[in-house]
């Protein structure tokens, strides 16, 4: 067992170093979910490092407020380096529309997208269905994030290779160390009972009562499975990596993501802020891992970027959920279920080879 307390204290006190100030000079960086917290902090870092920014928020007013904050912090007010687009991760139609607008936006300026940081996510304490009919945490953290990643991967992989110094474009998926936590041994049985794993976890009868963050760990593990398949799609038949894809865990960060947990009881209103204050690092420190993930080499394609574990520790801890025979079967079930729903609701995807492991 890995004792995490001293490592959380270390990460809270000593941040990941930032790269040189011109590391993203002239590059275009997309960051989703920037209204506050990690997304906004990451945008400030990328702006300070020379990037032109495209930011998203569910509400354009909040998005423009965040953009003003970023411009002020980075000292780039009036330079036209920050653009804001609307993105509602609870709806597939919004994801598709957003990518279409993104293509138009980049065509009118840089002509390409160098980095996409898919940061938007949520934690729900109470059961809620999305407009697409899935439990909201599963919808946002797994299904819509996978859709967004797939659309971006197909487009970014076809961009002109004009970034000789920076190498291939990057897509960074924000996950969590919580993907290590679920016990997946009964998941094949769950899928057989309901016709799908995500269907099982989207059924209110299976909603775990009395749990602080129901479905959060499940949604992040399901996303990790999906990203593994997307990583395979990013490699051409000749072995060349078209887009460098990574997952990243920013660690325990004091942000508003746990707001719904804190508001679920009087005691948690007191305890959650105390816990975050004592062990949670700042959004500035957490977002530095996004920057690190956006600068990985081709050799690091598919790597999980984090600081809590050594590579050997993570390999051992993740083996049951990612590398066991059960994990491989479960991954196939999840990928097939995700792609079946996406193709059913977004017919334009039907022309892609979306089989497990297909490129």
TrEMBL record:
GO molecular function, one term: oxidoreductase activity
Keywords assigned by UniProt, alphabetized: NADP, Oxidoreductase
InterPro entries according to UniProt: NAD(P)-bd_dom_sf (IPR036291), SDR_fam (IPR002347)
Pfam families, per database record: adh_short
UniProt record similarity statement: Belongs to the short-chain dehydrogenases/reductases (SDR) family.
Protein name in the entry: Putative short chain dehydrogenase/ reductase
Protein source organism: Aspergillus fijiensis CBS 313.89
